[in-house]
Amino acid sequence: MSYDIALGPSRPGRRELTPERRAALVGVLDRIAARLAGLLGGWERHDPAVGPLVGRLTAEEGGVRVSLYDGSALVSVLGREQAAVAAVAEVVRVITEETGYAYDARKAGDGVLDVGRAVLFGIGVAMLGVLVLLLLR
């Protein structure tokens, strides 16, 4: 099962993706990649030269993918690995800080993960792990 978290501009409006705008957004993706570097085993990067996709980061562990577009970003979570779910809130926080894009709760449901549910799921898994460890003592 996979989930997507959609983020968009806090102020609506569409700009043309000029070469200058693409270069600026590649710089934003550079900052996002630097901030996420130690999370989920590192990240592989894909930068297409044309089209609406500015760049994509794919985590080496956990099945998390970040796609940056002009005017939006998408965080895809492939599966429910504990490390991925626990890291999702941090990934979304970094993207919102670097882009100014906001999480769009109206798009939640039907395959779009509510960030709050992701964090609660991660906390629940962690608490279950602690309980198992206590029982095994």
Written description of the protein model:
By secondary structure, the chain is of the alpha+beta class. It has one domain (2-136). Helices cover 42% and strands 26% of the residues. It is built from 3 helices and 6 strands; from the N terminus they run βαββββαβα.
Summarize the structure.
The chain crosses the membrane at residues 118-136. 42% of the residues lie in helices and 26% in strands.
What proportion strand?
Answer: 25-35%
Residue ranges: pLDDT <50 for 5 or more in a row?
108-125
Q: Could you say which overall geometry the principal axes of the C-alpha atoms support?
A: elongated
The total count of strands amounts to 6
Spatial strand sequence of the major β-sheet:
2-3-4-5-1-6
Cα-to-Cα separation, first versus last residue: 34 Å
Biggest sheet descriptor: 6 strands, antiparallel
Specify the number of helices.
3
Mean pLDDT: 76
Number of domains: 1
- Gyration radius over CA: 16 Å
SSE string, helix = H, strand = E? EHEEEEHEH
